[in-house]
Specification:
Helix content is 0%, strand content 47%. It is an all-beta fold and 125 residues long. The strands form two sheets. Strands 2, 4, 5, 6, 9, 10 and 11 form a seven-stranded mixed sheet that branches. The protein has a four-stranded antiparallel sheet with strand order 1-3-8-7, with no helix packed on it. The relative contact order is 0.32.
Length: 125
């Protein structure tokens, strides 16, 4: 069983920055692919970015490429999402997720078997 707890969400002005954190339980955190997803009411949850277990590989949705950075600290069992140049359309609940059965980065929700409770990010114009 893996528990994920996000933090760091909040209200920020357009063009601002936020850093989200996701603390994970589990003895083999470094073997998990970790991802960030987001969801707005009435829409499907969408992929934002993901990172391999070692941190050596990352992938991003086109909508956030160049503005968001995913990273992880395996010694702290934590994954981060640094967000810069935020836009109102980035407003959503952000979820971190763990894919414990796959070693290759996945963008599909179905590959992730553990999810956090989500943290709200609101970008005002």
């Amino acid at each position: 069983q893996v528990q994920l707890v996000e933090s760091g969400g909040g209200l920020v002005q357009e063009g601002g920055s936020l850093r989200l954190s996701c603390a994970a339980s589990g003895r083999t955190f470094s073997s998990y692919v970790m991802g960030w997803f987001r969801q707005v009411p009435g829409k499907e949850r969408e992929f934002v970015c993901a990172i391999s277990g070692s941190g050596g590989a990352t992938t991003y949705a086109d909508s956030v490429k160049g503005r968001f950075t995913i990273s992880r600290d395996n010694a702290k069992n934590t994954v981060y999402l640094q967000m810069h140049s935020l836009k109102p359309e980035d407003t959503a609940v952000y979820y971190c997720a763990a894919a414990t059965k796959y070693r290759i980065i996945a963008t599909s929700l179905g590959r992730y078997d553990y999810w956090g409770q989500g943290t709200q990010v609101t970008v005002s114009s």
